[in-house]
Amino acid sequence: MAAAEIQDLSRCAVHTQTNKPWTLAQCCDHYARAGLGGVSIWRDVVDPELGGVGLDEAVRIVRGSGLAVPAYVRGGFFPGLEPAERQQAIDQNRSILDEAAALKAAQVVLVVGAIPGLPLVEARKQVAGGISACLPHAESVGVKLSIEPLHPMYAADKSCVNRMAEARAICAALAHPMLGIAVDVYHVWWDPELAAEIQSAGQENRLFGFHLCDWRADTRHLLTDRGLMGEGCIDIRAIRGLMEQAGFNGYHEVEIFSQAYWDQDQEKYLGRITESYQQFA
Amino acid sequence: MAAAEIQDLSRCAVHTQTNKPWTLAQCCDHYARAGLGGVSIWRDVVDPELGGVGLDEAVRIVRGSGLAVPAYVRGGFFPGLEPAERQQAIDQNRSILDEAAALKAAQVVLVVGAIPGLPLVEARKQVAGGISACLPHAESVGVKLSIEPLHPMYAADKSCVNRMAEARAICAALAHPMLGIAVDVYHVWWDPELAAEIQSAGQENRLFGFHLCDWRADTRHLLTDRGLMGEGCIDIRAIRGLMEQAGFNGYHEVEIFSQAYWDQDQEKYLGRITESYQQFA
User: Fold this and answer.
1) Is A57 exposed, middle or buried (0-12, 13-18, 19+ CB in 10 A)?
2) Which residues of B touch A232 (CB under 8 A)?
3) What is the pTM of this model?
4) Is the distance from CB of B99 to CB of B56 less than 8 angstroms?
5) Cross-chain Cβ contact A152/B153 below 8 Å
6) Cβ of A124 under 8 Å from any chain B Cβ?
7) pLDDT of residue B3
8) Contacts of A239 (CB under 8 A, 6+ apart)
């Protein structure tokens, strides 16, 4: 069953990193004027150490825009070679949850981490332990945690969780209602078990996020060459249909890392984003 | 149980593409003098249309070298938008099998194919159909066919089979003793089910090939930035242990696509290959 065509932009949110050249204020201003429903916020535009405007100012900007905040990005990176490093990661994730709560973000997206040379089996155990240690804080501040399975090409140093099945297994093991999954089409489109996994995750109430972009067949860079919806080979509408059949009714978050697009006029680019969203999502 | 350290090079083979700047004659000469057991031959150094020396000359060179030929690379690319294209692919794979037989290659490695925009489910059906149509010819010329699951980052246009599990499913469906799997550590190292999959494939007598290289954590290119064994994050010796526990006793085929290494002195590079093979495989 194909998903119905999208008629407006009320469910569309854009990640600030998609328009990386813009400040948080520029993102919120342009997104609100374009009629988007939400903005998903990267810590880069908030944390002064990363070049951001600071949390208080960020809260002021976001509240003033009237935009919803489906996600604060990103927490995670739990594995560490030493216990102290792992504890530091847990502490940082608790701070990130506090920031997310201040921004009224619905969830913190977890890029769970991996360390070259650390066996993936061990890394996955450390990830489950780290998330478990953060869940009480997530509950107390009212912000969900979502595991984003990352494409296997990021298994060396970014995420030891590379498929929906593994994310679901962690959710099942920790059995906490504040823990779920962010499904990014870029990372999971190739998985032969995708349809069944989305269905199961829906039944288990784990579908917290849905990220859109496209996979360019002639991808030139592992990190910064994502495609605009329609430019690649992902049947985004079919995956949205699976998500909706599984009960997901949250935001459709556009998250495109693309040096080619960052180099262009961001206002025109936002126009292309909303057009391609309506055409292909 | 860790695999025992390798004492000699008799089970080591190198793919000609690893030393791409060399001709087939140079490859065979250097590999034989280095004491390698085999050479896996890419069609590029055989087929005159791809710049090769022609089949008769290739046969003469390889037989003269005394090297075994674990694999002829590569067949596959079965999906096609039209029936005529799919038939053409089948015909070409039969020719490739004939070439492999002339070279006394044990197997033809299949990169099964994918087409951007063609649903992966449909592509996988076409792959099973194509392989099925080639198996009688494989049997008649005495050359095995091995499905090489390719890393999910190649799912758009090179292979719709991206995990051991999917390759095993095709083998099970076609149930032919001449069909098996080539396990390349580069493609499968990240898979949480790798150990169980190798064990099952061994029980089913499907472990036909074993390819070595490494995954660089800071991979700069999707196609031509593989690492030499030991330069990346793959525990190659552990995977060799799994293969041996599952009954595999074939060649260890070094297959490295690396522009950085192609730009270097190939004789010195071959020395580094054999050193790193003994240290890390």
Assistant:
1) middle
2) 116, 156
3) 0.97
4) no
5) yes
6) yes
7) 87
8) A183, A185, A189, A194, A198
